């Protein structure tokens, strides 16, 4: 049952899939506001860069809920939209079973790697989405978008990667973040890893205050929209490091 797994205030993504339902075309962020009955959920109308994204009654989306017990997915149909005390809301009927979000399983490497990262703002995410769509009328419009992206505020933070796989990382940090935040990462690998992009992008899927290290928090981040070549380079690094660790253990 939805309300047994998801709570009011949890973040939710509305995902528009392509015709074959194997590629995400568009992802919008919202949060859970209420449960009017056992088969529906009320969520906030998505907002990007301060602008409300008006979704229509009859639209169908995949829903991905970020709850304290994990990630869950289901299908949904928008059945109503309204304005409740100046808050634009959507009523979504759940049209499929709620399932634990199944992520591809990768071998995990225990490690200690320095990490530079920042939490991407809604403004930056909106600009990156525009660039991905590449629906600019003129080259000047695209350049203006690139220039605006360069001007986005980025507060670089430090963390430590303690667990690495081809699907994501587990990290420690003294900074407080929320489940659903998009994180841009530069991992300081101990040997050369040829990545085609400057950052590795991910989304925080769990957050816990550490009990054995005062002032530290532990996060799990799932890689998001990572190039196939970059993921393969990370997996190659993990494989090589695992061989090194086993060789040392035998000595």
UniProtKB/TrEMBL annotation:
Transferase in keyword set: no
Keyword Transcription annotated: no
Gene Ontology terms for molecular function: cyclic-di-GMP binding
Coiled coil location: none
Domain PilZ per the UniProt entry, residue ranges: 151-240
Superkingdom per UniProt: Bacteria
Protein name: Flagellar protein
Keywords, alphabetical: Cell projection, Cilium, Flagellum
Pfam families linked: PilZ, PilZNR
Source organism per UniProt: Anaerocolumna chitinilytica
Residue span(s) of domain Type III secretion system flagellar brake protein YcgR PilZN: 8-93
């Amino acid at each position: 049952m939805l309300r047994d797994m998801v709570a009011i205030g949890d973040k939710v993504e509305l995902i528009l899939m392509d015709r074959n339902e194997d590629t995400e075309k568009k992802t919008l962020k919202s949060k859970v506001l209420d449960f009017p009955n056992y088969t529906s959920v009320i969520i906030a109308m998505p907002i990007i860069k301060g602008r409300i994204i008006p979704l229509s009654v009859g639209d169908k989306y995949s829903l991905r809920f970020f709850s304290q017990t994990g990630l869950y997915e289901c299908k949904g149909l928008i059945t109503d939209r309204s304005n409740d005390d100046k808050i634009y809301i959507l009523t979504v009927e759940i049209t499929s079973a709620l399932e634990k979000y199944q992520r591809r399983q990768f071998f995990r490497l225990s490690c200690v790697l320095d990490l530079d990262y920042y939490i991407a703002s809604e403004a930056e995410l909106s600009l990156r989405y525009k660039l991905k769509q590449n629906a600019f009328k003129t080259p000047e419009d695209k350049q203006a978008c690139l220039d605006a992206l360069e001007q986005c505020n980025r507060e670089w933070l430090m963390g430590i990667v303690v667990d690495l796989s081809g699907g994501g990382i587990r990290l420690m940090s003294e900074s407080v973040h929320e489940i659903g935040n998009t994180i841009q990462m530069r991992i300081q690998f101990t040997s050369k890893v040829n990545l085609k992009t400057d950052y590795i992008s991910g989304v925080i899927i769990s957050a816990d205050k550490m009990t054995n290290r005062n002032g530290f928090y532990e996060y799990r981040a799932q890689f998001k929209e990572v190039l196939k070549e970059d993921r393969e380079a990370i997996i190659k690094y993990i494989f090589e490091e695992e061989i090194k660790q086993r060789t040392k253990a035998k000595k």
